[in-house]
Design a protein that fits this description.
DUF4283 domain protein, 5-stranded antiparallel beta sheet, alpha+beta, 12 strands, 330 residues
Length: 330
């Protein structure tokens, strides 16, 4: 009986081994190797900062300065993306409240009427970065230069590399419509008009009414000028045997403050001027301090009992001034 039970248990173990699935051992050559994550894949997983930081360039130390290097290909890619960008700035009227980004975008979308998607992001000091997905929309909007709003004026600037809204030089470059008065119609060719406007600034666009010669009072051209330099009132045109002057009129010149040398407000609206006035007022309101010389401590000496010495001393000099050693001071 013991032998038969032992044989039965052995047969059951053999049956279990036959029924159970056999695990196949995978050769080492067929084991898939884990690939190193790419830079783009790490960007798609923003929470994985440990692997992301390992692929960043290592900063360099030059003296007391820390130098970080940006990959040229990545920078070039970003510049290409900004090719259809513009810079906008809203100049609010005095007393107007700041506008929200979505409110401003809704108004500008109705005015510009772009056919494709566009996006605007606030920067600083009233500047906005505007990105268009279509270059045609960007050029159409760029031609409008500025638009009047209920709370102020929204001006456009050409996008430039390394733009810094805190740079005072950026505010001096604006786009303005100029009118060339007293110009005969034979000079109303687009190339001639742009050449004359080049004497004022950088010509950007010719007004449609001027191109079609609907009226001949003046030719209107859009130019970019630097307001930090003197503006020309007259441009002289020369021909091989003849020359004449053309009067230039500027439309909607922005207000310039002579206190901070910035544009968009007058002197009485300047914050820097108000701070300076408050400082001067506070300084004038303080009582004036009068400084008097401090005399050294004197040692009183008893009067001489001699009558002659008493008579020789004046009533105001009853005490002699002597130093600590007992010598009389001069």
């Amino acid at each position: 009986m013991a032998a038969s039970s032992t044989e039965a248990s052995a047969l059951l173990d053999q049956l279990r081994q036959l029924i159970a699935p056999k695990s196949q051992k995978v050769p080492d050559t067929q084991i898939p190797l884990t690939k190193k994550p790419t830079f783009a894949s790490l960007l798609s997983r923003p929470n994985d900062f440990s692997e992301f930081s390992k692929q960043l360039p290592i900063p360099q130390l030059r003296g007391d300065t820390t130098i970080v290097k940006i990959e040229p290909e990545l920078h070039k890619e970003q510049l290409n993306h900004c090719r259809t960008n513009l810079i906008g700035r809203i100049i609010l009227r005095p007393g107007s409240k700041p506008m929200k980004v979505e409110e401003l975008r809704t108004i500008l979308h109705k005015v510009w009427q772009p056919e494709h998607q566009w996006h605007m992001a606030p920067l600083a000091r009233g500047f906005y970065d505007i990105h268009f997905s279509d270059e045609v929309d960007m050029r159409k909007v760029w031609g409008s230069v500025s638009c009047s709003l209920q709370h102020g004026v929204f001006r456009l600037y050409q996008w430039q590399q390394n733009f810094n809204p805190y740079d005072p030089k950026i505010q001096s470059h604006v786009q303005l419509w100029i009118r060339l008065r007293g110009l005969s119609l034979e000079y109303w060719h687009p190339r001639i008009l742009m050449t004359i406007a080049r004497g004022v600034g950088i010509p950007l666009q010719i007004d449609q009414a001027t191109r079609e010669k609907k009226y001949g009072f003046y030719a209107q051209i859009l130019v970019e000028v630097d307001l930090s330099k003197p503006l020309l009132d007259i441009v002289t045109v020369e021909l091989p045997d003849y020359g004449f002057d053309v009067k230039v009129h500027y439309e909607n010149l922005p207000t310039r403050c002579n206190i901070c040398n910035r544009f968009g407000h007058a002197e009485h609206q300047c914050r820097h001027g108000q701070i300076q006035n408050n400082h001067n007022t506070q300084k004038n309101s303080e009582p004036k301090k009068i400084y008097k010389p401090v005399l050294a401590k004197s040692i009183e000496v008893e009067k001489k009992t001699s009558t002659e010495n008493n008579n020789s001393l004046d009533s105001e000099n009853d005490f002699l001034q002597v130093d600590e050693h007992g010598d009389q001071k001069v």
